[in-house]
Amino acid sequence: MNGFRHRAAIDLRLLGEGQRGWVMAGIMGIMLFLTVLAGALGLGVARSAIGLDRQLAGQLTVQLVEPDAGLRDVRAKALVAAVAKVPGVTRVREADRAELAALLKPWLGDVGLDPELPMPVLIDVTATEGSTAQVSAAARRVAPQARVDSSARWLSPVRGLLGALGLVAIGLVLVIAAATAGVALLVARAGLDTHRDTIDVLHMLGSTDLQVARLLQRRIARDTLLGGAIGTLAALALVALFQTKLALTGSEVLGGATLAPVDWTLLLLLPIGFALLATVATRLTVLHTLGRKL
């Protein structure tokens, strides 16, 4: 017990109490706040991209443009029947005129409800992956002018944007982690320079460089955990608020960005990871500066 108190007292003298410790904790709090936000962005984007891929997998649209209303209706029924027989197709549904008119209303107004207005036929198809070519062939046998579009192709720019955001989030986490290691390095060197005389006395008493490194890394790890915990909790509260707002939008893409329990767990573990990073950086810096290796 007395030995532990003695080591703790040496630790406090070596690094100093008060303002320096709070500055270190404050810096780490800011670092973790930004890291958790970046990590939440990356995890949310990944969840959204996975959900988007799942929703768009096998989603096809068969489009038929035919000015003759009578011929259009006949070919539409034939298209539905032909596509439904394709292996791998699980769902075929023709969009009715009211739905199309609702989609066109912002541009055409009530004119879209005019029965004399030519309206294309849109058929929603759900099929297994790899069935696109067979659906296209079946549709064109009935109507050569029919066109089959993949929902994934139309939304590929959105998917690309989500991927880019994910890479940016990963980059931010790595940059902040490197900055954290740099801060720990500077603090360790400052502690060595400030308490050089104390360290010389410890060496004369038989302390090794590794023991001196432990004194410094214990203090820096404590400050990192303290500041990191505060920054993490503040960031998680902000993330929870954003998630609530996203859920209220009703958007499938934005709503899919909701974090899973495993994601929250990973974010909560970030302060521990950063404390370990700061500890390792401090240890290597002290040993290198004092001219010793592990």
From TrEMBL:
| Domain ABC3 transporter permease C-terminal, first and last residues per copy | 172-287
Topology versus the membrane, per the UniProt entry? Multi-pass membrane protein
Q: Which InterPro entries match?
A: ABC3_permease_C, FtsX
Q: Name one Pfam family in it.
A: FtsX
Q: One GO CC term of this entry?
A: plasma membrane
Keyword Cell cycle among record annotations: yes
Q: What is this protein called?
A: Cell division transport system permease protein
Which species is listed as the source? Sphingomonas trueperi
